[in-house]
Write a structure and sequence with these properties.
Layout lengths: L5 H7 L4 E4 L5 E3 H17 L7 E5 L4 H13 L2 E4 L6 H10 L2 E6 L4 H7 L8 E3 L8 E2 L1 H4 L14 E2 L13 E2 L7 H8 L1 H4 L10 E4 L6 H12 L3 E4 L5 H10 L4 E4 L1 H8 L3 H5 L8 E4 L6 H11 L3 E6 L5 E4 L1 H6 L6 E2 L3 E6 L12 E7 L5 E2 L3 H6 L1 E2 L2 E2 L3 E5 L5 E6 L4 E3 L2 E3 L1 H9 L4 E11 L3 E10 L7 H9 L13 E4 L13 H9 L7
Helix pairs in contact: 1-2, 2-3, 4-5, 11-13
């Protein structure tokens, strides 16, 4: 061990520009290191010890990064909180994580103040500025030494899953007890799987909110490899291209919704930017329609990588070459991961047959904090599942069908909405689409599509008919939506995750069984 890890790199080269805030402000590694050291000294005086946790309700940028870097060198768990949540939902995470300090940015003061009721007033901090009822962070850090704290030990992030059922759960791993830089260097193994190299000149574009596991993992790990982090505040297609050119971005983490919106830009806009620096543009989080992915590879070249994974651990990887040979795949198991596809009785299914996807990551364990029953329910021996359905081909490449919870059972047949969504999404007048089952007294469920029309497309029966007609010869009639409704804007989280339950709920009101 010995050359990677933010704290090591910052000492060796304090002038390195480690991060760029959304407003363009550049931050030297030495300054970030000093801020993170002062915060550790201050929190230790507050009584924090290894194994304790802190929560942050922070927008993308360096203020949140400092919390992450402090926790990871002091042996604490850091939980970044989703800033779309309401006060009571925030309070639940602050209480459940047993946070010993809670940091809130003034932008999120309203719900953050409601959420702070779960923690003692002297443990609430405003970063930066002032929030009534919170202490300014300066009270923790002013006058504390810039020097490295003694007894440094690796901490970890504890993300809360956005669970589709019940309360979110913290995914908690045992602390390694390693030196923080050695722990960070081990983390870089994830990016090394994609062929990503350490050192300069490399820059990583942070496109989605840092409260998402993958965003923290890929951004944090890129930083530990010596890459400059360039933060976006709100995602915008042309701004993405502008930042890629301006900062010579080499790698990023994206979702298929980003691709669809980038491809919707006028050709002259797309051609205006120099994207020759791009080397590892990685995507995940949702199935990507084959034509969308193909169009991105044609535009950006062989720098578009895909993976499938979960906060809990384990996963697959598809290089551009893998994908061209196996269109639609999400890749093969990582060398440190195993895949198992089983039927409802837990027995393995034959190649090419859809089943529930179970994974394991060698040598890595986790628990859902405070919920041994949920931890146990997600496991099959030492494999776990997040409830996705998929199948393997003869070469061991994984293809996703859908989430088990989203599967439609119509007339006894299993229908996967993602397959239908992928076909509808390709239509030029469709900006976004969601497909789900609604009650049908004869068939059990019928297929409903909700479409967000592309700019300039007129919603109504004519467009619905045109969309259905486009499925002719591409999708079996039994999979066609019975009806199409239109919506001004699809309810999505910024990481691209569709809030399907919001769309589905009105159709199931008053029914005993809401799928």
């Amino acid at each position: 061990m010995g050359t990677l890890g933010f704290w090591r790199l910052a000492q060796a080269d304090p002038e390195w520009i480690a991060a760029v805030d959304p407003d363009g402000t550049e931050h030297r590694a030495g300054d970030l290191l000093a801020r993170c050291n002062r915060l550790v000294h201050g929190l230790r005086e507050l009584g924090l010890r290894p194994g304790d946790g802190i929560c942050g309700l922070m927008p993308n940028g360096v203020d949140g990064l400092v919390l992450y870097l402090a926790a990871l060198q002091a042996g604490w768990y850091y939980t970044p909180v989703n800033w779309h949540l309401t006060g009571p939902e925030i309070a639940y995470i602050v209480a459940d994580s047993e946070a010993k300090a809670f940091f809130v940015h003034p932008r999120h003061a309203a719900e953050g103040t409601r959420g702070a009721e779960a923690i003692a007033p002297e443990r609430r901090f405003a970063v930066p500025g002032d929030i009534p009822g919170f202490r300014p962070i300066g009270e923790l850090t002013d006058g504390r030494p810039d020097t490295a704290p003694a007894d440094r030990t690796a901490g970890a992030t504890m993300h809360y899953t956005s669970g589709t059922t019940g309360k979110p759960k913290g995914v908690r791993r045992p602390l390694s007890g390693l030196d923080p830089d050695d722990g960070a260097e081990l983390m870089t193994g994830l990016l090394a799987l994609f062929g990503i190299t350490p050192g300069r000149p490399n820059a990583h574009l942070v496109t989605s909110p840092s409260y998402h596991t993958a965003v923290t993992q890929f951004g944090g790990t890129a930083l530990h490899m010596g890459h400059t982090l360039v933060y976006m505040d709100r995602w915008d297609a042309e701004e993405t291209l502008r930042l890629c050119e301006r900062h010579r971005i080499t790698n990023s983490h994206l979702v298929p919704t980003h691709f669809k919106r980038l491809l919707a830009l006028p050709e002259e806009t797309r051609d205006r930017y120099d994207l020759s620096s791009l080397r590892w543009m990685i995507h995940a989080a949702a199935p990507c329609p084959v034509p969308v992915k193909r169009a991105m590879l044609d535009w950006w070249g062989d720098c578009v990588y895909e993976y499938y994974a979960a906060t809990e651990g384990g996963g697959t990887l598809a290089t551009p070459q893998d994908w061209r040979a196996h269109p639609g795949t999400v890749g093969k198991a990582w060398p440190i991961s195993e895949l198992l596809i089983v039927d409802d009785t837990g027995e393995p299914v034959p190649t090419g047959t859809p089943g529930t996807i179970y994974m394991k990551m060698l040598g890595v364990s986790f628990e859902y904090k405070g919920d041994p029953a949920k931890t146990e329910a997600s496991r099959l021996k030492d494999h776990f599942t997040v409830g996705d359905i998929g199948y393997l081909d003869d070469d061991g490449f994984l293809y996703l069908c859908d989430r088990k919870a989203d599967m439609i059972i119509s007339g006894g047949a299993n229908i996967y909405p993602a397959e239908i969504e992928n076909e509808i999404m390709v239509h030029p007048k469709v900006a976004d689409v969601a497909v789900f089952g609604i009650p049908d007294d004869e068939w059990g469920e019928q297929i409903k599509a909700v479409v967000e029309p592309a700019p300039g497309a007129e919603p109504g029966p004519e467009l619905a008919a045109e969309i259905l007609a486009s499925l002719e010869g591409r999708l079996a009639r039994m999979k066609w939506p019975k009806t199409i409704d239109f919506i001004a804007e699809m309810p999505r989280e910024p990481n691209g995750k569709l809030l399907k339950r919001k769309l589905r709920a009105p159709y199931w009101e008053g029914r005993e069984r809401a799928i």
